[in-house]
Amino acid sequence: MAASCVGAGLHCSRLAACRKVGKWQFPALQSGCRLYGHGEGLQKKLTERLIAGNTALGFAFVLGGTLGLYQTVRHYARQHQAQQQHTKDSRAGLSLTLYQYKTCPFCSKVRAFLDFHSLPYEIVEVNPILRKEIKFSSYRKVPILIGENGEKVQINDSSVIISAIKTYLVSRDRNLHQVISFYPELKSKNEKGKEITEYSNKYWVMLEDQDEQQFYPNKEIRKEEIQWRRWVDDWLVHLISPNVYRTPGEALESFDYIVREGKFGVVEGFFAKYVGAAAMFFVSKRLKSRHNLHEDVRQDLYKAVDQWMAAVGKHRPFMGGNVPNLADLAVYGVLRVMEDLEAFGDMMANTKIKPWYQRMEENVQKGSRLSNNLLPGESH
Questions:
Q1: Is the peptide bond before 120 cis (omega within 30 degrees of 0)?
Q2: Alpha helix ranges (H) inside 171-218
Q3: What 3-state DSSP class applies to 227?
Q4: Which pLDDT score is estimated for 33?
Q5: 5, 104, 116, 302: which one is catalytic?
Q6: Which of 263, 311, 340, 351 satisfies CB 3.0 to 4.6 Å to 125 for a cystine?
Q7: What is the C-alpha separation between 343 and 310, in angstroms, rounded?
Q8: Active site residue 107
Q9: What residues are paired with 147 via a beta bridge?
Q10: Is there a catalytic annotation at residue 61?
Q11: Which tens digits make up the pLDDT trace of 346-367?
Q12: What is the model's pTM?
């Protein structure tokens, strides 16, 4: 699948006394010297006091750690509550229509974001061959999001869509048209003379000064989110096609899924399934060469996924802390398109991503269930 999605797709302290092999070291006691006039009675009392002191000190450490954890959890809970309230207040009167290919990772990324934020939207499945559903647009790629809140606004590019809608949700008084002005188009030509379109600020959520601390308590949090959102677009997404079309059998399995979930006529579906599978099997070989992937592309997928999990770390459920951030949603959205395919099962069995992925799935599905005004027959 091309990037444009055209066609498919603690600290510890030292103590004066230390513990060794289950006993407290105290020179007069450990050297075998006798404490005259008191004997073992004094030794016993001193040992008990040392143990009691150690217990109290340990309790203090535990209490301090618990209080620190409580403060962290409370911060993230307040942050999430504030964000959800912003979302609830801002989405009133907002109508959204998503033009997509269901099996496109960029489109899946947008759906994950909208569902998590409980935003209702209508889906228009685009025929990948004729694309007549987007004939109104000079931008001929998907996803395209049409938003209306007084006036109609078209938003192109998955990362721009996510940044713009997030900005809109947290804005105090900007309408959607004003928000879009923060993400201007930049047109240029590549070395082959083909016109390409990029967008300024595409990974930035534009915040009022008074809101900055609430949503990004320090610069590193925002920097990390942007870094990994960019990583998704520049690297992770390019591992999908070579993996789902790795063998002829996997290519056929993938196109069977694409045809089943996409919008194809009977004849189109037949040719897309068999001719498309054969074509993408060979295209995946070129993609492997272009992106300098291993002969066994699964190894690149496993490495990328474990790299992501190392960045999330062991001490937080999501990169966003207790709540998924935009990077979490981007990674989840892209990987989700492989569900039910052989590559997905291999990834789950050979990497450390499964617990994180299941937590993401629960959060996104919960947001989707909270969404209001779902259209009859539509599934987010």
A1: no
A2: 176-180, 209-215
A3: helix
A4: 34
A5: 104
A6: 263
A7: 21
A8: yes
A9: 96, 153
A10: no
A11: 999 999 999 999 999 999 999 9
A12: 0.75
